[in-house]
Amino acid sequence: MNAITKALRTFGLFWWNFLVGDTPEIFVATLVIIGGALALKHDRSAGLVYIVVLTALTLSATVYRGRKRLS
Amino acid sequence: MTTSTVLLALAVFGACAVESVEALTLVLAAGSTRGWRSAYEGAASAVVILAVLVLAVGVPLVHYVPIDVIRVVIGGLLLILGLGWLRKAILRASGHVALHDEDAIYARTVAELNSHPLREQKRDGIGFVVAFKGVLLEGLEIVLIVLSLGVSSHHLGLAALMAAAAAVIVIAVGALVARQLSEVPENSLKFVVGIMLSSFGVFWVGEGVGLSWPGNDLAILACIGGFLVLSYGLVRWLRSFVEKRTGVDTLAAEQ
């Protein structure tokens, strides 16, 4: 493996660990939050409530998953 | 100075302090076992690369990419980073994960470095690489936070300044107290910064897609309050599982 390939692999690995790592549910939920917010951009109240509720659910779900994995 | 500017400054400072502590632990471990010259050179090389990265990526981002696109992407990145930190902090605070212990990490790194024979030469490659990688990897997160918060709010200079201030203070404290980095309340800092990054993430995703928040910047404070209440509730809820398992009232035990 040459130096450039190695550097690219390290760079890719950094982004994979940063974005997905051991919490893929946060990555997927963030995409869903952004996609849903874009779909609801013409309805301000529904859009804002959607972002807040889904973020709260994501945090609760990822914490619960963490507890289940650790116990 | 607006509410969001003050919160931005505090968030960048806190996040960079946490990352700087983690980087400094590795530099101290490399310096004390493999020689200070190699450790300093490794750390300095990484800092130069990070500074170039901020200039090379941050400045074009500000000038050539539409601000709403930046805000959505950065809002997403902040959500991923902030929720990840908050998750870890909640699991630690509830007793499901051991608290982050810089002394243990330092001892482990020193033991690992001591297992390699030290040659008698001015520069030590292993010390250089450990310090370089430590500063570069922790620093990349700092760069992401500086770029995210700085570019989306048009305060890149302030964000970079706060990051530098946090790094300088951590280094000064590290130099003065030498290896007592466990005294820095890193777990609490991570909790607070996780809440702030998540709040900025929620705020920028909304603003980026064109949904303006009631109260404008003040909505960030409301988000912080909401995350605080939710996180406290989650910690209490998770602690109830530990209490059921061990039969100990964790809150009473702390008092």
Outline the fold blueprint:
The complex is a heterodimer of chains A (71) and B (255).
Chain A lengths: L2 H17 L4 H16 L4 H27 L1
Chain B lengths: L2 H32 L1 H29 L2 H27 L8 H13 L10 H28 L3 H22 L8 H24 L8 H29 L3 H5 L1
What does this protein look like?
The complex is a heterodimer of chains A (71) and B (255). Chain A has helices spanning 3-19, 24-39, 44-70. Chain A has 71 residues and is mainly alpha-helical. In chain A, helix 2 packs antiparallel against helix 3. In chain A, 18% of the residues are buried. The relative contact order of chain B is 0.20. Chain B has one domain (3-245). Chain B is flat and about 65 Å long. By secondary structure, chain B is mostly helical. Chain B has helices at residues 3-34, 36-64, 67-93, 102-114, 125-152, 156-177, 186-209, 218-246, 250-254. Helix content of chain B is 82%, strand content 0%. The interface between A and B is medium-sized, with 31 and 39 residues.
What are the secondary-structure elements of chain A, in order, as H or E?
HHH
| Shape category of chain A | flat
Regions of chain B with pLDDT < 50 over 5+ consecutive residues?
none
Q: What would you report as the Rg of chain A, rounded to the nearest angstrom?
A: 17 Å
Number of strands of chain A: 0
Largest interface: A-B, 31 and 39 residues
Oligomeric state of the chains in view? heterodimer
Report the C-alpha radius of gyration of chain B, rounded.
20 Å
Q: Bin the strand percentage of chain B.
A: under 5%
Q: Could you tell me how far the N terminus lies from the C terminus of chain B, measured between alpha carbons in angstroms?
A: 39 Å
What amount of the residues of chain A lies in strands?
under 5%
The helix fraction of chain A, in percent, is over 70%
The number of domains of chain B is 1
Unreliable stretches of chain A? none
Helix coverage percent of chain B = over 70%
Counted by DSSP, the helix tally of chain B is 9
**Number of helix segments of chain A?**
3
Averaged pLDDT of chain B, please?
Answer: 82
How many β-strand stretches of chain B?
0
Order of helices and strands of chain B: HHHHHHHHH
What structural category characterises the helix and strand content of chain B? mainly alpha
